[in-house]
Amino acid sequence: KRVIDAGCGSGILALSAVLLGFREVVGFDNDPEAVRVSEENAALNGVAGRVKFRVGDLLTGFSDGPGDVVLANILANVLIEYARELTAAVAPGGTLILSGILAVEVEQVKAAFAAAVPEWPQESRVMGEWSDVLLVRP
After folding, report:
1. What tens digit of pLDDT does each residue of 66-83 get?
2. pTM above 0.85, yes or no
3. Buried b (16+ CB within 10 A) or exposed e, 75-95
4. Most buried of 17, 27, 94, 106, CB within 10 angstroms?
5. Would you state the torsion angle of the CA atoms of residues 6, 68, 93, 75, taken in this order, to the nearest 10 degrees?
6. In this predicted model, what pLDDT tens digit does every residue of 20-55 receive, in sequence order?
7. How far apart are CA 72 and CA 107, in angstroms?
């Protein structure tokens, strides 16, 4: 299964995927410094070279093809703006996990993704002031 960490930041989600046993993991960020830090964190955690980190954005970052698991820990307004690109990056039967969403914004995110892909089941959780949304592509 292929995991894509969109907007990888420090690389924590991609690195966690490797440590959980996923073999094909890609992470991208539009900030070259974030990519550098992600590679450094991979080395610090003994998994250097096991994640392919690169510079990319939500328009160019999915150039390697779809993911079975797509992770996006990104601000709600960006998730909403790029709902089509994020959902297009999920392989059939795959999962899209959105996080980094303020609890007060989760309903807006859910509505935007329900409009983009109404046939995809959604689940969400609120944990204090934060929330997440999980979607499954049929």
Report:
1. 999 999 999 999 999 999
2. yes
3. ebebbbebbebbbebbbeebb
4. 27
5. -10
6. 999 999 999 999 999 999 999 999 999 999 999 999
7. 17
Question: For residue 18, which amino acid is it?
Answer: V
Q: Which two tokens stand for residue 77?
A: 């307004």
Q: Which residue has the tokens 């924590």?
A: 12
Query: Do residues 120 and 87 touch, judged by C-beta distance below 8 A?
Result: yes
Cα separation, 127 vs 117, whole angstroms: 25
Structure tokens at 127: 């944990």
